[in-house]
Amino acid sequence: MAGKLTYQQAGVDTRKAAALVGDIGAHVRRTQQTRKLWGAFGLFAACYDLSSYKEPVIVTGCDGVGTKLELLLERGLLETAGKDLVAMSVNDILTTGGDALLFLDYIGIAALDEERITSLIKGMADYLEACDCILAGGETAEMPGIVPTDVIELAGFCIGCAEKGDLIDPTTVAVGDVLVGYASDSIHANGWSLVRRVLKEHPGEISDEELGAWLKPTRLYHDVTRDLKAKGVKPKAMSHITGGGLPENLERLFRGMGADLEIPKWDLPGIEKLLAHVDAEDRFHTFNMGIGWVAIVDEKDVEASLTAGDGGVILGRMVPQEGVRVRVSGE
């Protein structure tokens, strides 16, 4: 009818959005090679059969990519953004000793852009396929006038499950236990507000190659947890080193004791240029400093833990003095 408006004219194309669900089907199917949804993909809610668990305990996680997303969008690194989104939530699930089963995403965008959204989904599917977690669904919201045209909003949600008896129990951590750290692949997805401030105030100091190394996706630590289980090692606690660095992410695990850590020098191209502009103490509370995962284990399990996944190294021990103190080897 003449003069009447459509939803599409207002900036939202529901038919195009429905077609996109079919277009990403190949990526979704890649995440169901082993585990399967109970029912079809694309319904109002996703279902998963937990009957293979004897005493199932559901575990959940939610996270985003933070301000790193600005630099990824500027450089067209949408697949990296998708991988970061998955890793930030899946790794948190893995700290419980559970399995990451289902992942859902939220994408907020000014107008549907099939190429960019497909790149995001591909990155998610690459990581989800690697850790055997299903892309179970999500929400792509077109919000013209709310989300700027050069911005994409991202949030990820992960649902996992563990046998009650397999859950990690941080209350078992004791003085003398050993902290084993595992290398990060990059700065990961925390501390980027500070990185962006340094880049703005010191233009041209960081090369494109160095920045590219910093922007590599957050490492998935499923290889570490998988190998620990295969070796029969049950850590007393595990930590994903994100915002707050080693001190704050470890201190949430125990009370009435602490840890003295000595970490290797961070082996990341150009990172010394960044750290030269950062407060010496604050660096430990902002960046992962080359260690993205920590397992606290009994002395008898140290040797096996060091060969679980790549990059295992002894960082220190639990001590009676409260707080986590960190220093870099050789400094």
- The proportion of residues forming helix, as a percent range, comes to 25-40%
Q: H/E element string?
A: HHEHHEHEEEHHHEHEHHEHEE
Number of strands: 10
Q: Name the structural class.
A: alpha+beta
Number of domains: 2
CATH superfamily of the largest domain: PurM-like C-terminal domain
Classify the beta-strand content into a percent band: 15-25%
Spatial ordering of strands, largest sheet:
6-8-5-9-7-10
Radius of gyration: 21 Å
Per CATH, the architecture of the largest domain is Alpha-Beta Complex
Please give the CATH class of the largest domain.
Alpha Beta
The global form is globular
Question: Would you identify the regions where 5 or more consecutive residues have pLDDT less than 50?
Answer: none
Defining key terms:
Phosphoribosyl-aminoimidazole Synthetase, Chain A, domain 2; 2 domains; 23% strand; alpha+beta; 331 residues; 12 helices; six-stranded mixed β-sheet
Any overview of this molecule?
With 331 residues, the chain is an alpha+beta fold. The protein folds into 2 domains: 14-166, 60s Ribosomal Protein L30, Chain: A, CATH 3.30.1330.10; 170-328, PurM-like C-terminal domain (Phosphoribosyl-aminoimidazole Synthetase, Chain A, domain 2, Alpha-Beta Complex), CATH 3.90.650.10. The protein contains 12 helices and 10 strands. The protein has a 6-stranded mixed beta sheet, with helices on both faces. Helix 4 (78-94) packs parallel to helix 5. It is globular.
